[in-house]
Amino acid sequence: MTLIEIAIVLVILGLAAGLIVPLLSELTKHQHYRSTQKAMDEIKSALVGYANTNWRLPYADTTGDGVEDSGQLTGSIPYVTLGFGAVDSWRNRYFYDVNSRLVSTAKKANLCFALQSIASGEFPRVAFTAGGTQISQAIVFTSRGENLVLDGENNDGDRDYESYVPTNTFDDLTVPIDPDYIFQSLNCSVCCQCATHQIRNQRGSAINIQGGAYTTCTSVANGSTFTISTSQTINVYATAANCTAGTPIATTITYLAAAAADTNGNCLLDINSAFTVIDR
User: Fold this and answer.
1) What is the spatial distance between Cα 173 and Cα 168, in angstroms, rounded to a whole number?
2) What is the pTM (predicted TM-score) of this model?
3) Residue ranges of the chain with per-residue pLDDT less than 70
């Protein structure tokens, strides 16, 4: 082979390398994203499984040992507590944020009620477009992606996040878990130990109720009881006139709220002078 032929071969090899190296780099990048997305789907399932076992969600890990730290809502995935989710494909810890209602419940009814009670505006929240409307979530967790840092809205500490297709300036992978997703996964609609709760009026005077089995305004004397069953909602009024007018409502009792208040599981509750439902 002549020197000219060798030179031509080297040029061709150089051109080929110039094409192949970026291609391999891009393929590796996409493989990392695919692997991380798969791992995040498994983390999502693990979090729901944890909730189904412990009737709460774990706090964040803020000390780096993988164990949840009580009172901490934002930090890293507590992978030791969870039993899964240590690092992403770039060997970086996942960021984690959990709604404050969901970390201290102790039984199914409490967790289901807490999930149902999350209101618009509560944190964490996620927008699904850059600068879009923020929607309250039960959990948000994020991989920092190839650049190893949280990008844009995800990095300002306000507990508002964004989740959309990665770009040149935004490569985070963010997975929000909607409260209703966990609610349905736990089968909360058929919660709980008692299909019906008996509620005794302990206010000191009559109350008036409507809803559930009580299709019209019904007076409940002091010391008398009424019942609420699965999926029912009852409005409570201080007077018959308020009940007839439909306002003001003193309190609204849902079945899940009653189940959450029944800490001893005997299906018996009281409504006190502050219109609060308490265990009996």
Assistant:
1) 13
2) 0.79
3) 1, 3-30
